[in-house]
């Protein structure tokens, strides 16, 4: 194991690189510490960064970005089509045939619009030549400043932490579903096949400890592509089984207004008017969570190469991704509701809505687990980068924090080990796993995350940054329209949060720590 000098990411040797030796050293330090010091450039220089920099570096002095429309699309799809898609049948069952698809479509439109506003804020000032903002928090700092920067950081990183917990819970449920479907098949349906989720959460945690050692967002692209393929795989299986179930039933189930008062649920409880209200509120949070990816949009955009301007590529990727995911959401959610009506399970593939063909369920649930392994990284890499950047700036002379060591790995090459990254990321995964074992309520966690992150990260900050950047006059018709959109979404978030917290309170009545079984 060979020690490397402090704050030293790998060198790039290219052609006449000896002319850039001194510059390269500064680039390396700046790239590792992620210090936002950038040269002022003209439009022609921004479009052609090589005029002042080698082919190895972008206009901000960082290593050249290589992201494309397709890698951005795969990141977005990996982030968007998560475990949330499987709770949509349950969400539509609470809202009914009228409100369910309507709310789903409205969330898609709001996300598409605000994501395009946010994409314009990647560069401060001019969208082509302005200074780059590497993170969501940087964008808020450049456009709004003040206390809102800290508020944004708090909400964003708490939400990323919560998403990691939600994905750990979802993966364990899918792993258990594989075991339970096989158990159910072998016993001919006689064995209830109850089991604990703890071992499966620990297994997922061990996997994530390994993958969390991937250095940064740029190196996760291949995992995102695999995860995106997996998301389409299990969504297609869920859709196919839903269509088959509808055909077997000989018609569509469900009602215009959603679950009926007096319905006996799978757990044996009777739905009261109060519980229906909580369920309706919680459904809004579940749908909001199904579209949550704005909190990593800037970080995804920072991987895109230029020209063309990054915001143009990002807008195309956003339109394509949200259109595709909305079609899948509509089909999966609506056919799941049509198949099961008021008794649609909270998780279409793991709530034992389908027993056969069990091998197809196993394939779908394996795809879910593989997807969640990738999605966990897409959401956690920004949080990892934030903590490591802060630590490197706080203790720049500490070998533990900044030094890297070359470790040769067979069939891979040289891996650059950083001890702080190893310890901090491992502790992070252990903490999320422990909390997941304490609070294994899939639907409630999904609803809380959706409600908590939707308004501030998807609507409020993008709207406020866009107003500041475009210098939209206060009380103008455009300003009023944007504020009305923001306030409407705030009400939706509050309603969804209340419903989801009520769901947690109900679940806690019959809950024992670390002893949850399914």
Explain what you see.
It is a single chain. The chain is mainly alpha-helical and 518 residues long. The chain is built from 16 helices and 5 strands. The protein has a 3-stranded antiparallel sheet. The longest helix has 41 residues, at 147-187. Residues 1-53 have low confidence and may be disordered.
Secondary-structure map:
Layout: E1 2-3, H1 21-33, H2 43-47, H3 69-80, H4 88-119, E2 123-124, E3 131-132, H5 136-143, H6 147-187, H7 198-211, H8 221-249, H9 273-290, H10 297-301, H11 310-340, H12 358-394, H13 399-402, E4 405-409, E5 413-417, H14 419-438, H15 442-470, H16 477-508
Antiparallel strand pairs: 1-4, 2-3, 4-5
Record keyword descriptors for this entry.
518 residues; 3-stranded antiparallel sheet; two-stranded antiparallel sheet; globular
What summary fits the major beta sheet?
3 strands, antiparallel
**Which residues sit in consecutive blocks of at least 5 with pLDDT less than 50?**
1-53
Order of helices and strands: EHHHHEEHHHHHHHHHEEHHH
Rg result: 24 Å
Shape label:
globular
Q: Count of helices?
A: 16
Output the structural class. mainly alpha
Please tell me the overall pLDDT.
77
> What is the terminal-to-terminal distance?
46 Å
Q: How are the strands of the biggest sheet laid out side by side?
A: 1-4-5
Helix content: 55-70%
Strand percentage: under 5%
Instruction: Please count the beta strands (DSSP E, at least 2 residues each).
Output: 5
